[in-house]
From TrEMBL:
Matches recorded under Gene3D superfamilies: Glycogen Phosphorylase B (3.40.50.2000), Tetratricopeptide repeat domain (1.25.40.10)
Keywords: Plasmid, Repeat, TPR repeat
Start-end of each TPR repeat: 106-139
Keyword Amino-acid biosynthesis found: no
Taxonomic classification: Bacteria, Pseudomonadati, Pseudomonadota, Alphaproteobacteria, Rhodospirillales
Domain of life: Bacteria
Protein name, entry field: Uncharacterized protein
Amino acid sequence: MIQPQPFLIPAVQAHQTDRLDEARQLYRKALAVDPAQYDGLQLLGLVEKRFARTGEAVALMRRSLRLAPGFTAVRQNLCRTLQGIGDHAGSLVLLRQLAAELPDDAETLYQLGGTLLRQERRQEAAGPLRRAAMLRPDHLETRIALSEALLLDPASQGAEFEESLRNARASVMLGPGNPVAHLQIALVQEEMAHATESLAACRRALRVQPTMTDARHIAGINRLRLGDFVGGMADFEARKNNVWFQADGSPIPIWDGRPLPDDTVALAAEGGWGDMIHFVRFVPQVARICGEVVVVCPPRLQRLLSTVPNPGNIRFNPERMPAIRARSMFLSLPHLLGSTADAVPNRPYLSADPERVRLWTDRLAGLGGLRVGLCWSNGDATRDADPKRSVPFEFVRPLAAIPGVTLVDLHKQDNAAKRLADADEALLHRLGPDFDAGPDAFLDTAAVMKTLDLVIAIDSSVLHVAGALGVPSWLPAPYRMDWRWMNDAEKSIWYPSLRIYRQDRQWDWSGSMARIARDLARAAEAKAAGLAPDLLPAG
């Protein structure tokens, strides 16, 4: 009987010396003699993987695994191959088996944690990654992965962020020339609202790798927080969204901000709806230096956004697209137009539909006292609320006890965080099921706001609608505020009618909401006395 060894042994030798064509032929001859040669199957799979024939590689490794289910090397190689083709769910099954059998194998634990991390199962990922870091404390990639898992877990707070920072710093100690390690420190410090330290880490990453767009983007956010508007907006251009904009295959060039009086510029809305409402203010400036401006935006926002002042050459979502000379995104406009912090267009730039204002004025005519619109939670039917921005209702409830205050709920009832117990429902005035129920977003919201004295809203689209209308607004802001609100600011360069109440400590709403309650009581007293309530920021 012919044995496979005369072919298998030289096949392995050829494989080890990178003579891959020869190795493939010899492995196939060995398997022709003995198709159940499980080692030959997985080794041929590794060769096929080197030739980028991953489908064949996976099939060969699976055949090997069926013949030898306990073969550790096959499972490890198959895991890596599945991860390479993005089949993280398939690799996860094998990795769990391996981790159970090899609880002290740091590489397996690292692979398991990394796979869970790629599936955004961050809480699960932290456990195996902690164990891997303990077993192999000098492994840089494990330290970075553990720091990332702890940073991105929505449930993480102070202790988890401190642990994340320790692991990021350990990764820099292990690889001082690794730009990803420096970037990880920047990301953790940015999440902890340490803008100066985060910016320094970004600059260290950029010294190692000047083309690192993520580091440039985070540097821009930190520069904006620290008041460097012009430099921050320039660095902000490196944000990830620009990767899509540059690589979408369109032959239309990116606009560089120069006047094009005889041509059409297309502006693409980007980010969340709040970003679009915030940055549409710059569209009239583009219209003043270009022949025509075409704005592409979500259809539900079109009617609200199209109330922006229009010199006659702005079109929203035209049915027939004209010839386009250049294109840009909304968030690039401050940079392209050369805006400065003291010269952003911040007068009210959107308007409410007069007929709807009359309708809601009549419907709310019976509401007395200081009329205050409330938005304490974000999210919708398809997206959970962000716990770091949303205010638990327990901190909102005391506002209803203030004499002379009527609270109007500005939420649509489209997620669980906005539905309350009956006792709390009784504290608020609901606007009914027809509130913003049509195909257009925020038209009723804008009209209702024009009948109110004040809007108290978290960082959300609702807040941006109020700011764009010039309605007095108060923002309960997390300690780590969005870059656009700067650091330690009570006022906003974007909305003169906005007053900011920042948390005194991360994740603690008690202090900021107590200040809101105090100022709200004073405003209600003033209105009851026939005086103008103090609703705007100081100065």
